[in-house]
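Subject: complex prediction, re-run

Hi both,

The earlier run crashed halfway through, so I resubmitted it with identical inputs.
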Amino acid sequence: DGGITQSPKYLFRKEGQNVTLSCEQNLNHDAMYWYRQDPGQGLRLIYYSQIVNDFQKGDIAEGYSVSREKKESFPLTVTSAQKNPTAFYLCASSQGGPSGNTIYFGEGSWLTVV
Amino acid sequence: AQSVTQLGSHVSVSEGALVLLRCNYSSSVPPYLFWYVQYPNQGLQLLLKYTSAATLVKGINGFEAEFKKSETSFHLTKPSAHMSDAAEYFCAVTIYQKVTFGTGTKLQVIP
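This time it finished cleanly. Structure:
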Protein backbone atom coordinates (compact mmCIF):
# COMPACT_ATOMS: atom_id res chain seq x y z
CA ASP A 1 0.00 0.00 0.00
CA GLY A 2 1.17 3.51 -0.79
CA GLY A 3 1.72 5.84 2.09
CA ILE A 4 4.02 7.61 4.49
CA THR A 5 5.84 5.73 7.21
CA GLN A 6 7.16 7.49 10.27
CA SER A 7 9.36 5.86 12.88
CA PRO A 8 9.64 5.50 15.74
CA LYS A 9 6.12 6.15 17.01
CA TYR A 10 7.42 7.06 20.46
CA LEU A 11 10.83 8.46 21.25
CA PHE A 12 12.39 9.70 24.45
CA ARG A 13 15.26 12.17 24.47
CA LYS A 14 17.59 13.08 27.26
CA GLU A 15 18.68 16.64 27.73
CA GLY A 16 21.52 17.52 25.36
CA GLN A 17 20.90 14.68 22.92
CA ASN A 18 20.16 14.87 19.24
CA VAL A 19 17.48 12.52 17.94
CA THR A 20 16.38 11.70 14.41
CA LEU A 21 12.85 10.96 13.26
CA SER A 22 12.52 8.90 10.12
CA CYS A 23 10.05 9.58 7.31
CA GLU A 24 9.70 7.45 4.19
CA GLN A 25 7.09 7.75 1.44
CA ASN A 26 6.32 5.48 -1.50
CA LEU A 27 3.82 7.81 -3.16
CA ASN A 28 6.42 9.16 -5.60
CA HIS A 29 5.68 12.66 -4.32
CA ASP A 30 8.11 15.48 -5.00
CA ALA A 31 7.32 17.62 -1.97
CA MET A 32 7.77 16.59 1.66
CA TYR A 33 7.11 18.44 4.90
CA TRP A 34 7.68 18.27 8.64
CA TYR A 35 5.12 19.74 11.02
CA ARG A 36 5.08 20.09 14.76
CA GLN A 37 1.77 19.80 16.60
CA ASP A 38 1.17 21.17 20.08
CA PRO A 39 -2.23 21.19 21.81
CA GLY A 40 -4.28 24.24 20.86
CA GLN A 41 -1.74 25.51 18.34
CA GLY A 42 -2.58 23.54 15.26
CA LEU A 43 0.23 22.52 12.93
CA ARG A 44 3.37 24.56 12.51
CA LEU A 45 5.76 24.02 9.60
CA ILE A 46 9.33 23.15 10.52
CA TYR A 47 10.93 22.39 7.12
CA TYR A 48 9.80 21.53 3.64
CA SER A 49 11.45 20.18 0.52
CA GLN A 50 10.19 20.56 -3.04
CA ILE A 51 12.86 18.38 -4.67
CA VAL A 52 15.79 16.17 -3.80
CA ASN A 53 18.81 17.95 -2.31
CA ASP A 54 16.82 21.10 -1.66
CA PHE A 55 14.84 22.23 1.39
CA GLN A 56 13.62 25.43 2.99
CA LYS A 57 13.00 26.55 6.54
CA GLY A 58 9.46 26.83 7.73
CA ASP A 59 8.06 28.95 10.53
CA ILE A 60 9.84 27.20 13.42
CA ALA A 61 13.09 25.74 12.01
CA GLU A 62 15.38 26.77 14.88
CA GLY A 63 16.80 23.72 16.64
CA TYR A 64 15.90 21.34 13.82
CA SER A 65 17.73 20.05 10.75
CA VAL A 66 16.75 17.93 7.74
CA SER A 67 18.22 16.27 4.69
CA ARG A 68 16.71 15.16 1.37
CA GLU A 69 19.20 12.85 -0.27
CA LYS A 70 16.54 10.59 -1.75
CA LYS A 71 13.10 11.40 -3.11
CA GLU A 72 11.38 8.99 -0.76
CA SER A 73 13.17 9.98 2.47
CA PHE A 74 13.08 13.16 4.58
CA PRO A 75 14.53 12.59 8.08
CA LEU A 76 14.22 15.24 10.78
CA THR A 77 16.89 15.73 13.44
CA VAL A 78 15.87 17.44 16.65
CA THR A 79 19.05 18.95 18.04
CA SER A 80 19.96 19.90 21.57
CA ALA A 81 19.43 23.52 20.53
CA GLN A 82 15.68 22.92 20.48
CA LYS A 83 14.75 23.89 24.03
CA ASN A 84 11.21 22.58 24.11
CA PRO A 85 11.06 19.58 21.78
CA THR A 86 8.28 17.62 23.48
CA ALA A 87 5.54 17.44 20.85
CA PHE A 88 3.83 15.34 18.19
CA TYR A 89 5.70 15.44 14.87
CA LEU A 90 4.01 14.86 11.55
CA CYS A 91 5.68 14.13 8.24
CA ALA A 92 3.72 14.81 5.08
CA SER A 93 4.04 14.82 1.32
CA SER A 94 2.28 16.14 -1.77
CA GLN A 95 2.57 15.78 -5.51
CA GLY A 96 4.21 19.05 -6.45
CA GLY A 97 3.68 22.01 -4.14
CA PRO A 98 0.79 22.33 -1.72
CA SER A 99 -1.23 24.77 -3.81
CA GLY A 100 -4.38 22.87 -4.73
CA ASN A 101 -2.74 19.54 -4.01
CA THR A 102 -3.76 17.27 -1.18
CA ILE A 103 -1.17 16.88 1.55
CA TYR A 104 -0.85 13.32 2.80
CA PHE A 105 0.28 12.69 6.36
CA GLY A 106 2.09 9.95 8.19
CA GLU A 107 0.86 8.56 11.50
CA GLY A 108 3.09 10.85 13.54
CA SER A 109 5.84 10.46 16.12
CA TRP A 110 5.71 11.45 19.77
CA LEU A 111 8.91 12.93 21.15
CA THR A 112 9.29 13.39 24.88
CA VAL A 113 12.20 14.90 26.76
CA VAL A 114 13.09 13.03 29.94
CA ALA B 1 -0.95 37.51 4.43
CA GLN B 2 -3.27 34.56 4.56
CA SER B 3 -4.86 33.25 7.72
CA VAL B 4 -7.53 30.83 8.81
CA THR B 5 -9.71 30.97 11.91
CA GLN B 6 -11.68 28.11 13.36
CA LEU B 7 -14.38 29.29 15.74
CA GLY B 8 -14.70 27.04 18.75
CA SER B 9 -11.88 24.80 19.91
CA HIS B 10 -14.45 22.31 21.22
CA VAL B 11 -17.89 21.48 19.84
CA SER B 12 -20.34 18.99 21.35
CA VAL B 13 -23.32 17.53 19.52
CA SER B 14 -25.74 14.73 20.24
CA GLU B 15 -25.65 11.62 18.11
CA GLY B 16 -27.93 12.21 15.14
CA ALA B 17 -27.76 16.00 15.38
CA LEU B 18 -26.37 18.41 12.81
CA VAL B 19 -22.63 18.99 12.86
CA LEU B 20 -21.43 22.50 12.02
CA LEU B 21 -17.75 23.38 12.30
CA ARG B 22 -16.83 26.92 11.36
CA CYS B 23 -13.87 28.12 9.33
CA ASN B 24 -13.15 31.64 8.11
CA TYR B 25 -10.16 32.65 6.04
CA SER B 26 -8.48 35.79 4.88
CA SER B 27 -6.80 36.04 1.51
CA SER B 28 -6.22 38.67 -1.13
CA VAL B 29 -6.48 36.11 -3.92
CA PRO B 30 -8.73 33.09 -4.53
CA PRO B 31 -7.65 30.38 -2.11
CA TYR B 32 -7.59 26.62 -2.10
CA LEU B 33 -9.41 25.37 1.01
CA PHE B 34 -9.25 22.03 2.77
CA TRP B 35 -10.77 20.20 5.71
CA TYR B 36 -8.74 17.45 7.38
CA VAL B 37 -9.71 15.09 10.20
CA GLN B 38 -7.40 13.72 12.86
CA TYR B 39 -8.26 10.78 15.09
CA PRO B 40 -6.38 10.42 18.39
CA ASN B 41 -2.72 9.62 18.05
CA GLN B 42 -2.85 9.58 14.24
CA GLY B 43 -1.97 11.78 11.31
CA LEU B 44 -4.40 13.95 9.38
CA GLN B 45 -6.48 12.70 6.49
CA LEU B 46 -8.32 14.70 3.86
CA LEU B 47 -12.09 15.10 4.23
CA LEU B 48 -12.66 17.42 1.27
CA LYS B 49 -11.15 20.29 -0.67
CA TYR B 50 -12.25 23.34 -2.63
CA THR B 51 -10.25 24.21 -5.73
CA SER B 52 -12.47 26.81 -7.45
CA ALA B 53 -14.89 24.41 -9.08
CA ALA B 54 -18.31 23.90 -7.42
CA THR B 55 -18.84 25.98 -4.29
CA LEU B 56 -20.53 23.09 -2.49
CA VAL B 57 -17.99 20.36 -1.94
CA LYS B 58 -18.85 16.86 -0.84
CA GLY B 59 -16.35 14.78 1.04
CA ILE B 60 -15.97 11.46 2.71
CA ASN B 61 -18.09 10.12 5.59
CA GLY B 62 -21.09 12.30 4.66
CA PHE B 63 -19.37 15.65 5.26
CA GLU B 64 -19.71 18.64 3.00
CA ALA B 65 -18.58 22.26 2.99
CA GLU B 66 -19.71 25.36 1.16
CA PHE B 67 -17.35 28.05 -0.07
CA LYS B 68 -18.88 31.50 0.47
CA LYS B 69 -16.66 34.18 -0.94
CA SER B 70 -18.78 37.05 0.39
CA GLU B 71 -18.46 35.70 3.92
CA THR B 72 -14.90 34.36 3.48
CA SER B 73 -16.12 31.14 5.01
CA PHE B 74 -15.77 27.42 4.40
CA HIS B 75 -17.88 25.80 7.12
CA LEU B 76 -18.01 22.02 7.45
CA THR B 77 -21.37 20.30 7.96
CA LYS B 78 -22.86 16.85 8.34
CA PRO B 79 -26.61 16.33 8.69
CA SER B 80 -26.45 13.59 11.32
CA ALA B 81 -23.55 13.01 13.70
CA HIS B 82 -22.26 9.53 14.33
CA MET B 83 -20.16 8.40 17.27
CA SER B 84 -17.31 7.65 14.88
CA ASP B 85 -17.17 11.36 13.92
CA ALA B 86 -15.57 12.22 17.25
CA ALA B 87 -12.16 13.59 16.26
CA GLU B 88 -10.31 16.85 15.72
CA TYR B 89 -10.96 18.76 12.52
CA PHE B 90 -8.59 21.18 10.84
CA CYS B 91 -9.36 23.77 8.21
CA ALA B 92 -6.47 24.77 5.93
CA VAL B 93 -5.93 27.44 3.28
CA THR B 94 -3.30 27.30 0.54
CA ILE B 95 -2.17 30.31 -1.43
CA TYR B 96 0.96 30.61 -3.56
CA GLN B 97 2.33 27.26 -2.35
CA LYS B 98 2.00 28.23 1.32
CA VAL B 99 -0.43 26.24 3.44
CA THR B 100 -1.79 27.55 6.73
CA PHE B 101 -3.70 25.35 9.14
CA GLY B 102 -6.28 26.47 11.65
CA THR B 103 -5.88 25.61 15.31
CA GLY B 104 -8.42 22.79 15.11
CA THR B 105 -11.85 21.99 16.53
CA LYS B 106 -12.41 18.93 18.66
CA LEU B 107 -15.79 17.37 18.01
CA GLN B 108 -17.45 15.43 20.82
CA VAL B 109 -20.47 13.27 20.00
CA ILE B 110 -22.76 12.54 22.91
CA PRO B 111 -24.76 9.31 22.80
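The CA atoms of residues 13 and 113 of chain A lie 5 Å apart.

- K.
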